[in-house]
Amino acid sequence: MQVNTLILGAGAAGLMCAAHAGPGALVIDHARAPGEKIRISGGGRCNFTNLHCDPSAFLGANPHFPKSALARYTQWDFIDLVDRHRIAWHEKTLGQLFCDDSARQIVRMLMDEATGAGADLWLETSLADLSHDGSRFTATLDRQGKRQRIEARNLVVATGGKSIPKMGATGMAYDIARQFGHAVTETRPALVPFTFSDTPFKPLAGTAVPVRATAGAGSFDEAALFTHRGLSGPAILQISSYWHEGDEIVLNLDPGGQLFDTLRTERQSQGRRNLTTVLGQHLPARLVDFLAPTLGLSGNLADQSDARLAEIVGALGDWHLKPTATEGYRTAEVTLGGVATDRLDSRSMMSRDMPGLYFIGEAVDVTGWLGGYNFQWAWSSGVAAGRAI
Ligand code: FDA
């Protein structure tokens, strides 16, 4: 059988590409249903884009690479599409847009767009073999137990990254990239909780606190969450993308920078109260109790000199921790790194070395922050390839 375009992966990027690739596109996926990650994303409501989407929210070896695709299909274009399909949405926080009802609406919308554009979808189909004869790709597919040969002018690789293997994530995109001479940058789990081998935060499990979390060049003001195994919460997931094994992270428990002045003022009105009690008005009481022995928190607030208050606030603002590891691909929202962008055309996502070969979505070495950025990259890169085809 001959098709114009064979798209590997019916996830966010693959379906979006199919919607723009014109008739004669065949999308295959080894899963039973399309868009499974979309379905479970955002707690079932899919954080489908971010109002503040901008190339600075993306990591990769070449920070300029995502600019073209993101500029040519923006968050506003995707919001238009969602509106045309009458899917109600709301902004939750920090520009993050979610469906009011269900992430399934986004999957349905993409399926309608793709099939409306003339694409076919084969589920429970995997790739057994792939070759290129100089002008066409030949793929041997395993479709529900039967072998099928497909010839295609274009091949779009949209099989995502390695995160959540239980959901069918494979490293297939990297194998195909290498097969056709493309480099793959180092991959590691990102947007993922940290673990600590001595589980120091067990007594705090479930406690959330606003922080400024920093790892390497990444610094985020959001909530951190103590867990049985270590640290999670949006601020922590964000900095995990900037963290390397062996690095320290820094938590600033006074991200607003007003605690010293506040405590000085309260020393006049609440001087007879315990220091820990007063601190417990600004930080979770369990966290204050946890830190008290290390920071030597004792006595009444009135007993604390300015210098002592400055010392305490300084320590709260500069808490150094050394995670042992992350929870890995088992829970990571995305894979950092991937198909190297140096030999891809940033306007079309096509290989510079093999015309007709495209890589899109999470498979590529472009990784967004938490908050709808990764889906926007899937939409933008999918449209870039689809339009170029
Ligand atoms: P995606 O993973 O969506 O699709 C790849 C497809 O290829 C899958 O359907 C898979 O079955 C198929 N496939 C893989 N290997 C194959 C093989 N060997 N043969 C055949 N098919 C194969 N992002 C965001 O912006 N907002 C959010 O709210 C969330 N929430 C979220 C929650 C959770 C739990 C996770 C794990 C991830 C998120 N993300 C997110 C990240 C987001 O899901 C991710 O960035 C996109 O789905 C990437 O889109 P792709 O199409 O590139 O890959």
Automatic annotation (TrEMBL):
- Signal peptide interval: 1-21
Pfam family of the protein (one): HI0933_like
Sequence ranges assigned to domain RsdA/BaiN/AoA(So)-like Rossmann fold-like in this UniProt record = 5-387
Give the UniProt keywords, A-Z. Answer: FAD, Flavoprotein, Signal
The RsdA/BaiN/AoA(So)-like insert domain sits at 188-334
Q: What is this protein called?
A: Flavoprotein, HI0933 family
Asked whether the keyword Manganese is assigned, the reply is: no
Q: Which cofactor is recorded for it?
A: FAD
Q: Which SUPFAM superfamilies match?
A: FAD/NAD(P)-binding domain, HI0933 insert domain-like
